[in-house]
Amino acid sequence: MAFEEMWRDLQPIGRSASSGGYFRQPWTSAESELRAWFLEQARARGLELEMDQLGNVVAWWHPPGLSRRGDAIVTGSHLDSVLDGGAYDGPLGVVSALAAVDLLRERGFEPVRPIGVSVFVEEEGSRFGLACLGSRLATGLTGWARARELRDRDGVWLPDAVEAASLPVEPDNSPAAWLTPERVGTFVELHVEQGRNLVDRGVAIGVASEIWPHGRYRFDFAGEANHAGTTRMEDRRDPMLTYAMTALAANKQARLAGQRATFGRVEVTPNGTNAVPSHVTSWLDARCSSDAALAELVEAIEKQAADRADRDGTSLVVTAESVSAAIAFDPGLAAYLAALGDWPIIPTQAGHDAGILSAAGIPTAMLFVRNPTGVSHSPAEHADMADCLAGVEALAAVLGGLAS
């Protein structure tokens, strides 16, 4: 089947020989190779390509004589990864979308609405820190004035990264929103499940009901650099201690509330073994079952961090870098999808481009494919081939139903 061939083509791109994980960050050579692969696949199928200045792309299936109305069906996902990530998060939705189009064509299906296969850039936020950046810009939910001020860990500005990837964008130009409710009638994203709900249920396919609200917050702890040997413990103003207590507090608060809190990234200055640090910057990822619960959790963590900073003689500044409200997918659309295969409707705690398109006013749904490990954002992420092929069948059924 075409799915298996495409999957074999993608497997080596951006893969680490040491860990087996993937480094497919946006506007790098690996991601550019993936985009070139997608463009080649689209052209081989005679699909009409539309790409913006950042690399967001949609490959359109416009059968002869089909009216180019503004009620298109769009599917797809992303090709970028987190640092040392898994193979399935994102690419599974792109490959499945192309394979579903192949399947519909093999069966002689003729859509009465245009069908587009999309690829969005920087979904993970692994390089520039703002998750779903490509779809945010494509829908207009985030403006270029904000996006152009983003820098990666090496200090590279976003416009420079885009230009270096041979996707010319003028520094003063403002990429326009082009995936809007006036053009797109429905968006459906297929994604590997990032959890064990489907495993526990013993089913291969699920339908999303909602995305939990989530946010990324930068905690800047400032203290005083000093000698690790000659400085008495009681004389120190050590921001590492404040950070360490904050990480423990986040874990405790999240457990007590039944929510999610993770400090997964930290930077230390001067980062020397024999020096008390002067500054610690860490990033909190918080996800909760409601917007109110998210605000309460972050407030509780910040309060404990501030109290500890007072005791340690350090200071704290918290900056919300990105916050996404709860997304409830179109319930009627979810029910329609679920009825096609008697699939369960389940929530997700992970963010997706589908959530951005939903927030932009486009009726949106998601299909999940079972992940037997329940692990994601890791080389251990997996989906069995039989379940992947079941996902292609499910997506083809959905697209066929919506575009008929």
UniProtKB/TrEMBL annotation:
Pfam families linked to this entry: Peptidase_M20
Keyword Cytoplasm: no
Cofactor binding summary note: Binds 2 Zn(2+) ions per subunit.
Alphabetized Gene3D superfamilies for the sequence: 3.30.70.360, Zn peptidases (3.40.630.10)
Cofactor list: Zn(2+)
Domain of life: Bacteria
Residues bound to allantoate: R216, N274, R287
NCBIfam families membership: hydantase, PRK09290.1-4
Protein name from the UniProt record: Allantoate amidohydrolase
